[in-house]
Amino acid sequence: MVSELEAAKTRIATLENAQTSTNEKLNSFKQNLEQMGSYYRKNNFILHKLPETSNETTSTLVKEVHRVLTEYMHINIGLTEIDAAYRLGGKKSDAARPVLTRVTCLWRKYEVLEANKLLKEHHLSVTDDYSVEARNIRRNLIPYLSEARRTNHKAFLRKDKMLVDGKLYSLEEVRSMNFNPQPQDTGTKPMIHPERDKRRADNGQTTPQTKKKPVSKATTMNLAQFKSQKKRSPSPHDAVIHMSA
Fold first, then answer.
1. Rounded distance between C-alpha atoms, residue 149 and residue 198, angstroms
2. In terms of residue numbers, what domain contains 88?
3. Are residues 175 and 107 in the same domain?
4. 187, 202, 217: which is the final residue of a domain?
5. Cα(95)–Cα(88) distance, rounded to whole angstroms?
6. Looking at residue 83, what is its pLDDT?
């Protein structure tokens, strides 16, 4: 009986070691895939809301992207510097699909991203080409970003994190109850927790507001008496009464 138990323990230990080794290999494989994906995307950016036509071809799309870069963003880029441009996803509605664009030089991509503000008046925008995981995280960070800006915090998205008043927060941190950045002024700012507030709204509740406790008349009178006694200087008569007591 003892020998069978020892044999079972040995088999369990062997399986646990094999599982640990398999997990390490999977993690290493995942890291390699992420590195390869990052290398592939390093010269990419995505152009959003560019009108899409029914007779659009790869050649006409590249020329249209080049026109946006040169005319709207004032970037002196040659047509041959655009390595590729194509729509993302299948056509499902009348909405224009994003255009993934690859340029030949990394610094050209940074130049395009920095000039993004020039596209606002044309109702266009460019973003970096993030991984699927990073895009999902950024999408989940949007409600927290909006709430942070609504409460007068300087908030931006940096890859898969949110920068609030100079400090980076991950999605897990902003979802936790401990996420409460310090306000920039003396006013009280509510905790950034949109999911909790949404649950309250669904239940017909409102976010509780901090109320000042009313001061009673007795407290006001006692405070006034205390101030008057503090201002009055002690007289020799008070000293005599104190000594007699």
1. 18
2. 41-128
3. no
4. 202
5. 12
6. 95
pLDDT of residue 199: 54
Residue 182 domain-assigned (yes or no): yes
Is residue 107 within 8 Å of 92, Cβ to Cβ? Answer: no
User: In the prediction, which pLDDT does 108 show?
Assistant: 96
Looking at 99, 128, 157, the residue that finishes a domain is: 128
pLDDT above 70 (res 43): yes
Q: Looking at the 3D structure of the chain, how many domains does it have?
A: 2
Give tens-digit pLDDT for 165-204.
889 999 988 888 555 555 544 444 444 555 555 555 555 5
Within this chain, do residues 96 and 144 fall inside the same structural domain, yes or no? no
Confidence of residue 16 (pLDDT cuts 50, 70, 90): confident
| CA distance readout (Å), 201 to 62, 148, 198, 209 | 47, 19, 5, 14
